[in-house]
Structure prediction request, 273 residues.
Amino acid sequence: MDYQLFLMKTLADASQIARDHFGSVTPAIKDGDTSQVVTEADIEIGRMISEEIKRTYPTHNILDEETGIVDKHSPYTWVIDPIDGTSNFAQASPLYGCMLGLLKDHEPIAGGFALPAFHEIYTAERGKGAYCNQQRVRVQDQKELLSALVAYGVERHQEDPNRTRKECELLAEIILACRGVQTSSSVFDAAMVVKGVYGGFLYQNCKIWDNVAQQILLEEAGVLYTDFFGQPIDYRHPLTKATEMFSFCAAPPALHGQLQQIISTWKMKCACS
Prediction:
């Protein structure tokens, strides 16, 4: 099935809602997680996308970060992140995006994301390539991590400060091994990998809706996309995974291997300490 037009239209509508709210939202702290915020734009976009899915694909499941779950007992599940980078958006930073991905059973088969502030919409379907504003995009397989910029998102862990400190030890090793580390902690960083501006994007603490849409985009652009430690990501029974922690390591194959060597060394060091 061709999902391209649906993705483009729905993400364009989401982008317009985000732009209409940009600079005038009132963020609220999410229950149970003081590091996460939500705005009225998140809710409005999530509802709009869910309604479009119900109209166009009425037999499909829906998993939305803000509005919840619709279980149609289907092998197809749409995974929605209305605004990825809500903290940025709430502070009027343009480094945010809207994400929409589709799983068939446990495999991402289609997806897209929009960068509303930059008027860019990225779409992909399995085996059909990745596109930005309908123009084909594919990364170059960079060979040397030392010459690449890398994006790395870090979450704070006030309940366990040493966890954050240990992760920053790994971040230091990556900084020393590459040309520099950038971060928006949002799908903007994934877009920079798709364009070949960044050589990789890593995150240890995220959710299913942070992964599905960008995984299909990045893979179709020629990127190797795994969990943080180089293993396949488990999307089985996606409707049960709303509270589960995910991670990812995304980079062209040669750089992915070099990043995994650094991560493996750090992991062994942590195990011994």
